[in-house]
Amino acid sequence: MRRLTAFVRTSLAALLLGGAAAAGHAGNQQYEPLAASVQAALHAAVADQAPLDPSFVRSPEKARWLAEMSGRLARRLPDQTYREELLRAVHYEATRAGLDPQLILGLIQVESGFKKYAVSSAGARGYMQVMPFWARLIGNQDTNLFHMRTNLRFGCTILRHYLDIEKGDLFRALGRYNGSLGRAEYPNLVRGAWENHWSYPPLRLAQTP
Q1: Residues 65, 111, 16, CA angle at the centre, nearest 5°?
Q2: Is 91 left (phi over 0), alpha (psi -120 to 50) or beta?
Q3: Banded pLDDT at 152 (limits 50, 70, 90)
Q4: In terms of residue numbers, what domain contains 167?
Q5: Which residues contact 125 (CB under 8 A, 6 or more apart)?
Q6: φ, ψ for residue 49 (rounded to 5)?
Q7: Could you please report the per-residue DSSP string of 37-58?
């Protein structure tokens, strides 16, 4: 009985640790030297301080999207005002980078579990778990990777950069984003979160290989 009890305790601990890990497969983007032109383009992309798209209040389709995603996210983020601010920012930054907003929601779920101040063991920060070297490389001395819009802008810009490097191959781009290029676990987790939790039929989903 004692042996069985010890086994149950050990198994429960493993499950709890596994659950904690599953809540945040945090990114560990690898530093790679950038050509001056690429660095300048990425800097310009993250420096853009354009206001959020005001058309949410005028577009019935976007209003439906916001209401649907807000309902799905309510358990994780109970504050409706903050939750909808985050969703509008995700939609804006993803669309601006040519990415599917639902993909980004899936990535955030896997990376940080929607924890704004998440920090990985490698030092990646925020919702999209952006590595600090990106702030030095394409940001400026005032870059705060825990700021909502800044984190989302950097994360979407970086994923777009990796997609461009990989010529649209999302599997490989996600591997680069997580520092696990060539391994299937992380891309599959993101795709699973995207398709199982955040897919939204009225909006066209990007296709992955």
Answers
A1: 115
A2: alpha
A3: very high
A4: 25-47+54-198
A5: 118, 119, 131, 132, 145, 146, 151
A6: -105, 30
A7: HHHHHHHHHHH--PPP-GGGGT
Q: What is the pLDDT of residues 72-113, one digit of tens each?
A: 999 999 999 999 999 999 999 999 999 999 999 999 999 999
Q: Residue 14 domain-assigned?
A: no
Catalytic residue among 61, 93, 111, 195: 111
Could you tell me which of 94, 101, 126 has the C-alpha nearest to residue 27? Answer: 126
- Residue 95, judged by CB atoms within 10 A of its CB (0-12, 13-18, 19+), counts as middle
Tokens 């086994």 sit on residue: 7
Domain with 165 in it: what CATH number? 1.10.530
- Tokens 């058309």 sit at which residue? 55
111 is catalytic: yes
